Amino acid sequence: MLPSKDITRLIEIMAALRDKDTGCPWDIEQNFESIAPYTIEEAYEVADAIERNDMDELRDELGDLLLQVVYHSRIAEEIGQFKFGDVVEAVTRKMIRRHPHVFGDEEARRQGLPKGMWETIKAEEKAEKEAARAARGEEPRVKSEGYLDGIPLAQPALTRALKLQQKAARVGFDWGAAEPILDKIEEEIGELRAAMAEGQQDAVAAELGDLFFSVVNLGRHLELDSETSLRLTNDKFRDRFHFIERELKSKGRSVEEANLDEMEALWAMAKGRV
Question: Residue 144: its pLDDT value, please?
Answer without folding.
Answer: 60
